[in-house]
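Can you make up a protein sequence with its backbone structure tokens?

===
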Amino acid sequence: MSDFFLAELAKPQPDPGGGAAAAHGALIALALLKKIFMLEYTRIQTKTHSENWENKKIELDSLGERMESLREEDRKIYPRLTQFRKSESNGEKFLKIVEDSITVPLQIMKGAIEGLAIIIWLGGHCKEILKADLRVSAELLEAALRGTYHIGRANLPLSRKLALPVIFEQELQNKLQEGQKAFQQAITVLHPTRETISDDSYCR
């Protein structure tokens, strides 16, 4: 990640927009999550890594790559929508673009939920001091979840106009509820178990 995306985001132009910004926020959350994961992964290297640790590492790496791809996908949607609106095209390509304007936010929401699931798992395995950092990651993912929900909903009128499946609206709502439930689970897991933490537990 670099400041290039932020510089592009700040420009007075339509893209990248809110969906890409939400995906970028999720990428920051995942970078912090990976830092915490690797701190604990390295700490137990003298022990035998369980299959769960190895699987979670692969899952986290894959999720980061997918979210970066979704960020770039989202930023391409608006120019394509504008192009086909101007051409007054009603072809299959336009239908696909409108569909993407909802399914890409849905995929970002799904990725945020997967990230929260890893946080819930890691929260049960990491040192106490790192739970505050995990809480930051969880908050950023929840913000990305809600943000892309609103982006997807904003594009629903286009899907209705083109008679695309009405299930999109329900899918957005379902993902939002699923994500909020996962966020609450994460907050419960990350709640401090004691008020003071000894210096020897600080492993950053």
User: Anything to note?
Assistant: The radius of gyration is 19 Å. The mean pLDDT is 87. The chain has one domain: 16-192. Residues 80 and 97 are 7 Å apart (CA to CA).
